[in-house]
Amino acid sequence: xxxKTIFKQTLxxxxxxxVVFTAIMAAMSALxxxxxxxxxxxxxxxxxxxxxxxxxxxxxRMDGMTSLxxxxxxxxxxxxxxxxxLIFVIMTANTLVASQVDRGSMAYLLSTPIKRTKVVRTQAMxxxxxxxxxxxxxxxxxxSTVQLAHHGLWGPDYSKDVKAASxxxxxxxxxxxxxxxxxxxxxxAVKAGAEARGIQEDVYTVYLNQKLQTKAYEAAAEVLxxxxxxxxxxLSLIKNNERALTAAAKVLGLEPAVYxxxxxxxxxxxxxSGNAAQEMQAKFMAGITAAAEVLNxxxxxxxxxxxxxxxxxxxxTAASEAAALVPAQMFPEGTPAGVIAEQNEAAFLAVINGQxxxxxxxxxxxxxxxxxxxxxxxxxxxxxxxxxAGISFLFSCVFNLSKNSLMLGAGIPVAFFIFQIMSxxxxxxxxxxxxxxxxxxxxxxxxxxxxxxxxxxxxAVLGVVLYTLGITVFxxxxxxx
Amino acid sequence: xxxxxxxxxxxxxxxxxxVFDVSFEVNKGEVFGFLGPNGAGKTTTIRHIMGFxxxxxxxxxxxxxxxxxxxxxxxxxxxxxxxxxxxxxxxxGTQFIKMMAELRGMSDMTYTDSLIKKFxxxxxxxxxxxxxxxxxxxxxxxxxxHDPAILVLxxxxxxxxxxxxxxxxxFIKDEKERxxxxxxxxxxxxxxxATCDRISIIKDGRLVSTFVANDLRHSESKTxxxxxxxxxxxxxxxxxxxxxxxxxxxxxxxxxNQAKVLTSDADVNKLIEILAGYHLxxxxxxxxxxxxxxxxxxxxNQSVEGSAANAVN
Lengths: 481, 313
Hints:
The complex is a heterodimer of chains A (481) and B (313). With 481 residues, chain A is mostly helical.
């Protein structure tokens, strides 16, 4: 099938280019991973959201960027990694066949008792192996960087607050991470945890409760053997299943009956009509606007840093008054104004705390790193390059002159890349995506639970067809040697 | 027995380029010269013999095997020296020799080492920085290292210094002694003249002449140049000899009182008898060379008469 001798010679002639490109790409991906900071990215995203022009331009790319993998997918695997690999593939494919025919050095290989097909198959083999090895190195370097910069890849990882709280509780970190109620039930532990996270205690308590709730849903989902998202959408699933209810209650450290009652309440609340939810939202925004006036900042700025309202009593009062979250009919006639104000303030605070706790949870998700998704990302990039290398290789086999081989072998892949970029820029150019092979590898579908296996299969099959075609053409053509 | 067979080979590259209905064969143990200027179709023909190109019409075969279909089998017995040397630049000479030996499945390197010595090759350096002459020598060594029975040489001495050219020509002669079949394409008359048994001349993609080299070397007719001592003598010669056609006078140079006379070996006494009656400055034979013969096909102004007409088969 392959000639070891020719492979060795090809390796000797091409390894330097491979090393240069692989080193640059691995370093770039490692840099993107190392400097990733979920807090900073979130801040940036919030800023961008306030600038409609830029937000439109970024489009749906913004959503992906709030996690490390999403960020990698949008930057490295959407841009730098692709263009660099593209250049490498174009240069190598041309060197492997067309340039050797053009220069005439192919004559030596063909004046030995080696079949033409064996020569060209060996060259194809080198191209595929080099691209594979390139992404293998990038993957290994990437995983190592994740471990070094963000931890948690190998061995258990504990967030800062769990570490601090378990020190206070004098308990094993594993035990604390498994049962967050241990922190909740100890004032000193809550204090230490909040400090470690750099948030207020009340926000931290809400955060812990939200986390526990998610874990409870997950436990229930496991019992039910379904996806956690499905459970979150339809809580009656838990309530109607004894075992699921018990499992979820256990996580929260509650009696199943008690948890059942709580669930019922939550279900009732969530069944509130969309109007009511919208009304609540409008009221809350009115509160924010009032607070912004007091604090003399933009409402948009304030929405992203609601902690400021809590720090300023005057702002809080103004906000809760303006929002009046508790409906007036809830109060019996003759309730003193002070009580109403107090209740409204408490309600407003609860919403703010909920929001702040949500921010914390999305920060946790930001550094959440799925090795499987990362491997899929690299597999996808490899398959894309496998197919594109097939194009360049085919033209390298078809043409006897380097310049002709490059014209199409480089021209088409570069055009694909440009079409992909164009299709992302504006919706009027969106149809360009059908003209590009690059759109078959969409990092967003991997990090965002989209479909990608069919596209991967197309890339793989297309690559195989292109290489086979190239080899067949080379076998049958006239060589000017 | 013919080892290389080219039968009605046609390959049209368009605008008159290519080869058209070329047929010849090279027999076992024969050195066959393939003579023509650049662009006449020599390399195209060799491309087909080596199996790099597929004929449009006709076929080429080596030891009875089709060049195109069985290109990898014929290479076992063929040593090919390309006209243009393009070596893989990333290797050193030693690595290149080792690679070619591996591709040919060779393990015994004693013959290769003797070739390296004979051609004074220094293979240790990188191919990128090697001089053209050194690359040539390296190509020669790798073409012959497996001691093939058939040698296909495309302008083998270009780029070699005169000393190396001599060594190469004597090497070809030795190989011929050892019974090798050799196809030598060239536009250098001396090397073809010195080595070849038979010669074909190719012009604009067509064979114009194929002949046995010895017929040309030992032609029975000869050309003599005669210069007369005076104008009177010259005019007398023309009156008495040229116009009555006693001798075959090919050309005259009046201002120098010279005449060129063609005669066969049998008639040479008659020529001397006639010339005895004149005052001459000198009398010399003009050697008819391969170059003269070759030029006849390329220089249309020159008359086609000449001794070589006898040499053409």
